[in-house]
UniProtKB/TrEMBL annotation:
Name of the protein in question: Oxidoreductase
InterPro entries: NAD(P)-bd_dom_sf (IPR036291), Sc_DH/Rdtase_CS (IPR020904), SDR_fam (IPR002347)
Pfam families: adh_short
Record bears the keyword Oxidoreductase: yes
Source organism: Methylobacterium frigidaeris
Keyword Coiled coil attached: no
Similarity annotation: Belongs to the short-chain dehydrogenases/reductases (SDR) family.
Protein keywords: Oxidoreductase
SUPFAM superfamilies to which the protein is assigned, alphabetical: NAD(P)-binding Rossmann-fold domains
Gene3D superfamilies: NAD(P)-binding Rossmann-like Domain
Gene Ontology molecular functions: oxidoreductase activity
Length: 253
């Protein structure tokens, strides 16, 4: 799909991978709405790219419905969705203080998995009602998994299972929307240099980067954005989860 002039929604657009994707989409001519719990962060990126910042809790049905409706009023219904909103809470299933709080587990599933599904259902409903573009394409939906979906480490039970849910969601969604020309893919990043990672001490960042076979460094958010745009551009990519990790396979700990 040629993104020029097309309405796009990026969740988690105020930071990290979402902000980089919003910048790349806008540079390619898309009309970008950045949805984020952190409205101030989204507003700063939106101002820079001439986009729209909307407050949204992706885990909440009414909040997402309102944000998607406001984006449609400003830009028309979105044909592109990139789900980047996420949280990475760590914790053992049974830690020093006993079993993990069930709400802590549920929160990660709620934001990462249910939040991605929430936006998928709303954006797909809008795109289904649009006329097809050249080649019969109506939309492209990309969610963000993680290599933790396949190699979750000790302490990543909640995060890894939320991301495995994204992997499992991708094919049935692609199959369901195929007759309407809406493609669904996911990206499974390795370790990327975002505010979350930049908060770690430099030596920890260096050792994480050194574990990556090649290139031996953290991924750059722009490299994630490049893949998102490549997926949107290449109509043959559908129902697939693509690892973006420099060959990294995470160890148990
Ligand atoms: N950085 C990495 O190494 C890495 C690796 C694999 C996967 N990922 C995934 O990529 C995605 C983006 O991560 P990032 O590193 O850019 O993180 P980040 O913390 O820089 O950005 C995440 C954004 O999501 C927003 N957000 C959090 N909860 C929200 C909610 N309920 N509703 C709306 N917005 C919400 C935050 O405000 C923030 O702006 C996440 O899903 C993360 O799990 C990141």
């Amino acid at each position: 799909m040629n993104v020029n002039g097309v309405a796009a929604i990026v969740t988690g657009g105020g930071s990290g991978l979402g902000a980089a994707t919003g910048r790349a989409l806008a540079a390619a001519g898309a009309r970008v709405a950045l949805l984020d719990l952190n409205e101030g962060a989204a507003a700063a990126v939106a101002e820079e790219i001439g986009g729209l910042a909307l407050p949204c809790d992706v885990a909440d049905a009414a909040s997402a419905e309102a944000a998607v409706a406001r984006a449609a009023t400003a830009h028309g219904p979105a044909r592109i969705l990139v789900n980047c909103a996420g949280v990475a809470t760590a914790g053992r299933i049974v830690g020093r203080n006993g079993p993990l709080d069930l709400q802590a587990y549920a929160k990660v599933i709620q934001v990462n998995l249910i939040g991605s599904f929430n936006l998928m259902r709303l954006v797909a409903a809008g795109a289904l009602a649009l006329d097809p573009l050249e080649g019969g394409e109506r939309g492209v939906i990309i969610s963000t998994a993680s290599i933790a979906a396949y190699e979750g480490q000790v302490g990543q039970a909640a995060y890894a299972s939320s991301k495995a849910g994204i992997v499992g969601l991708t094919l049935p969604a692609a199959r369901e929307f195929a007759p309407a020309g809406i493609r669904v893919c996911a990206i499974a990043p390795g370790i990327f240099e975002t505010p979350m990672l930049r908060g770690l001490p430099q030596e920890v960042q260096d050792s994480l980067g050194a574990a990556v076979p090649f290139p031996s460094r953290l991924g750059k958010p722009e490299e994630y954005a490049k893949l998102a745009l490549a997926i949107i551009d290449n109509s043959m990519l559908n129902g697939e989860v693509i690892r973006l990790d420099g060959g990294l396979r995470m160890q148990p700990k």
